[in-house]
Write a structure and sequence with these properties.
Elements lengths: L2 E5 L2 E3 L5 E8 L8 E6 L5 E7 L6 E3 L7 E6 L4 E6 L8 E10 L2 E7 L3 E5 L2
Parallel strand pairs: 2-11
Antiparallel strand pairs: 1-3, 3-8, 4-5, 4-9, 5-6, 7-8, 9-10, 9-11
């Protein structure tokens, strides 16, 4: 079955960096768009970034544009999120999610998430 396992979260100071990873299994990773979404304490889910099947096209929300970079390694079935210049408002549980198709669209599977805390 589809499994998505995030890792790499932790406590970081404002201005710092973290790299999140998402190990995928149970489906043909290279044939689906993938996403990162997050949920801050007490708030709803927020879409963060998206990447197409080959990794050549990426999209990010205005709140993270220029600071976060989504990437993928299809040989390793792994999705990444490089987060730089972190701010306190980036504190959230970060989830990777699988798209429903090779053309993107909605999300049908999520991991359990990894907590990122940005604090001095």
């Amino acid at each position: 079955q589809v499994q998505l396992v995030e890792s790499g979260g932790g406590l970081v100071q404002p201005g710092g960096s973290l790299r999140l990873s998402c190990a995928a299994s149970g489906f043909t990773f290279s044939t689906y768009w993938m996403y990162w979404v997050r949920q801050a304490p007490g708030k709803g889910l927020e879409w963060v970034s998206a990447i197409n099947t080959g990794g050549g096209s990426t999209y990010s929300s205005d709140s993270v544009k220029g600071r976060f970079t989504i990437s993928r390694d299809n040989a390793k079935d792994t999705l990444y999120l490089q987060m730089n210049s972190l701010k306190s408002e980036d504190t959230a549980v970060y989830y990777c999610a699988k798209a429903t198709s090779a053309q993107g669209g909605s999300m049908d599977y999520w991991g359990k998430g990894t907590l990122v805390t940005v604090s001095a």
